[in-house]
Task: structure prediction
Amino acid sequence: METDDSGRGIVDAIGKKGHRVSGYQIVDDDVGDIQKAVISGLETSDAVIITGGTGITSRDVTIEAVRGIADYEMTGFGHVFALISFQKIGTSAIMSRSTAFIVKRKPVFCLPGSPSGSMLAVSELILDQIDHIHHELGR
Result:
């Protein structure tokens, strides 16, 4: 976690809003490893937040990994995140594939690896809507 500025920032932001972080891990860019980590994380928490692997390089496999175990995608998350990203950083926002899924009736958010991008999603979308998302999912 010492070199994971995005992960550290997310953990801090979640704690400041009064939510509890039940786990944290760094996972290789491997579809199977990502899927195992998500399933494991959902066993002890009400949501999973992933940073990294949402770009356009060949090693960016987070979206494909989570899509493979998802019940469905929350496409609105990606649309709104793209809009607010565009407002903050301009046209570079088109290179992010950030999105969210529902896996086992719990939200899984796939965010960019950059600290500014991941914190934008957490502070302006996730923490603002997580209680409503859980309500809609019957949690």
Remarks:
- The longest strand covers residues 106-111.
- The chain has one domain: 5-136.
